[in-house]
Write a structure and sequence with these properties.
By secondary structure, the protein is of the alpha+beta class. Helix content is 51%, strand content 11%.
Length: 413
């Protein structure tokens, strides 16, 4: 058997020669001075034992004070000490005993690593999102979050190489820059992506789990109903807002109708009949995938007529600032509220909770309120009731609601 001194002091000759070690391992010394580890083995093919050579790598003398990380990098570069070459020989012998050519196995592992590198976090996340049975606007919002918060840091990484440290970096940045709600959404989304990756054998573990409690819990009650005093202050602050006029109009439309925030910002002119004071939101834009008719109070009709003079030639009532062919972004509301000092105290989704609570306090029928909010009646018998009668009732209810807002909170009187 060889020792390291023999390997280190072996000199080049005119012809390549071999220094044998044990069990098929030898060191080939080439005329150019390169010393290469080789493993000779026999493998049965077509009933005949045939000899083959497996190239392990080149010889290197054991570096002093080398870290394990450095040693791994060296071996990845094909440089092996005597002891390491023997360990590789042992692995190769194990494959041969199974009838596997170690050279073929190495090629297979290289291809496998290449395929795994091609399976990025972004590709799996896109697949995960496509599998969700969500409405289009919900998918768009989640994709927007991924593109803003997660993909810049993780998108190009092979999904199997994402570590808890990567996840923590994303969560901490999201918490600092976007707030606890966005960080929580990012955490849930990333965990869902890894659940898909694990179930399809593209990842072994969910790196979100070890750091899922690293951030303080979100104690902000974004969806709690605002008191009348808070609504007063919100609308007063709104009138002082120096941002886009269209953002304020979309925000008011949401309050006057109690529609969902995305339904307001993505409203299209073709959905409105201002002469009938009706807004028909098509099924594809609704959470429950059913057309929803919303009565428009005169305040909303007046605002929309004025808005038509500004954006009536576009598809959307409230076009985007940078791309007028697309609707305003939901981020416009968030940015406006942040500028007004309301971030963390109120989110646009709390508008519907507030409206429902205050309308109940004003004595209106819960059936009318639930219908206005496009909530599905859980009782199958009650669902058969002709809700057309509710439209007239809702017209009166929403006009009174808009009048209360107009009288007490708006400076546009």
């Amino acid at each position: 058997m060889l020792n390291d001194t023999q390997c280190r002091t072996a000199k080049a000759k005119e012809r390549a020669y071999k220094l044998s070690d044990d069990k098929g391992l030898y060191l080939e010394v080439k005329p150019n001075g390169v010393k290469s580890w080789r493993y000779r083995f026999k493998l049965e093919k077509d009933g005949v034992l045939k000899e083959s050579i497996f190239a392990i790598g080149n010889y290197v003398s054991a570096p002093s004070a080398e870290s394990e990380e450095d040693a791994q990098a060296r071996r990845a570069g094909g440089l092996f000490t005597l002891a390491e070459a023997r360990a590789e020989r042992l692995k190769a012998r194990g494959l041969v005993k199974q009838g596997i050519n170690p050279a073929h196995q190495r090629k297979f592992e290289k291809i496998k690593r290449g395929q795994q590198s091609a399976i990025t976090f972004e590709s799996v996340a896109t697949e995960w999102l496509a599998m969700k049975d969500w409405e289009v606007v919900t998918k768009k919002r989640r994709l927007d979050m991924l593109q803003r918060v997660v993909f810049p840091k993780l998108g190009a990484l092979p999904v199997r190489q994402v570590t808890p440290a990567h996840i923590l970096d994303v969560l901490q940045a999201a918490h600092k820059q976007n707030g606890p709600s966005v960080a929580a959404e990012a955490r849930r989304t990333m965990s869902g992506v890894f659940e898909l990756a694990i179930s399809t054998l593209r990842a072994d573990t969910d790196p979100v789990q070890p750091v899922r409690k690293a951030l303080p819990p979100n104690k902000t009650q974004h969806k709690r109903p605002l008191s009348f005093e808070e609504i007063v202050q919100l609308f007063r602050d709104l009138e002082k807002h120096g941002g886009r006029y269209e953002t304020r109009c979309a925000f008011k439309l949401m309050w006057w109708t109690l529609c969902r925030p995305n339904e307001a910002v993505e409203a299209k002119w073709c959905e409105f009949d201002l002469d009938k004071a009706e807004w028909r939101i098509p099924a594809e834009r609704m959470k429950k995938r059913k057309e929803h008719v919303i009565p428009l109070p005169r305040q909303a009709v007046g605002m929309l007529r004025a808005q038509h003079g500004l954006t009536g030639h576009y598809e959307h009532v409230f076009p985007g600032r940078d791309d007028r062919e697309k609707p305003m972004s939901m981020a416009s509301f968030r940015q406006m509220l942040k500028n007004l000092g309301w971030a963390g105290k109120y989110s646009p989704h709390a508008t519907r909770t507030t409206g429902s609570t205050r309308l109940n306090e004003m004595g209106f029928s819960s059936d009318w309120i639930e219908r206005q909010l496009a909530h599905t009646e859980p009782n199958s018998v009650r669902r058969t009731y002709n809700h057309a009668d509710y439209l007239k009732n809702r017209e009166k209810m929403m006009q009174q609601w808009a009048d209360v807002l107009d009288e007490n909170f708006s400076s546009d009187n």
